[in-house]
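Researcher: If convenient, please comment on what follows.
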Amino acid sequence: MEYGDHYGQVQRPKYDCLLFDLDDTLYPLSSGLALGCRKNIEDYMIEKLGIDKSRIPDLCNLLYKNYGTTMAGLRAIGYDFNYDEYHSFVHGRLPYENLKPDPVLRSLLQSLHIRKVIFTNADKVHAAKVLSILGLEDCFEGIICFETLNPIHKSTASDDEDDIEFVGSRTAPSTTTSSNEIFDIIGHFSQPNAGSELPKTPIVCKPSEHAIERALNVASINPNRTLFFEDSVRNIQSGKRVCLDTVLIGTSHRTKGADYALESIHNIREALPELWETDKISEVSYSGKVPVETSVTA
């Protein structure tokens, strides 16, 4: 009898990396942070950028729809502002007290012996604070955040031990041509045939496929062996286009682009038990051959 026939064909685990969004994925939408973030963005636009309050709803909708984030859209249409100041204003006043330690999720993550990485559009200060409050700060190998994909203030890796960005990126800082003119995106879309190309943003962020590909490259992640957890359908669909397997969080309805759909991140074990089966090792010896790892194909 052949060795392979006797012991069964040895297969690699399907995934060697789990890529997690942060906000409204590792904690529920009901926490109210998303609502607070939206209000803070609107307040920033009014107080810091001098945008008329009556224009805010339509402007936010168009910027988010066309650029992925309001911040990216604001930069695209001509507003210039300090990124750190923006993040401090938008995230610094969030109701973090609504978040609580999550020992259940912590236990689940710690029992998963697969590489785990955070990928968020938020800045590193916000990401670190959320993970700390949830009690998950040591559950991930690293964090891909705004600063990782938009290294405006530096072009080399940081030697700061407290820097939670992925190091190793040598991407040149993004630049944009300064202009005093603000592109009227509301007026643009009010035209019957709004076909001209929109101005581009210097900000790299989800759901851009380029952003996801850059994140994977920075962290040396193979998309073909990675499972991507997200609450955003747009981000899920972009992830699918770059060959990630995807898990939509916050609903049990599996939409286009989602391989799985979970009401809560807490449902991960019942929905994806195969992630834990990668730990099964068969210590089998045959004719002096070394033991082989066995696993279940997902």
User: Anything to note?
Assistant: Confidence is low (pLDDT under 50) at residues 1-8, 154-165, 167-179, 281-298.
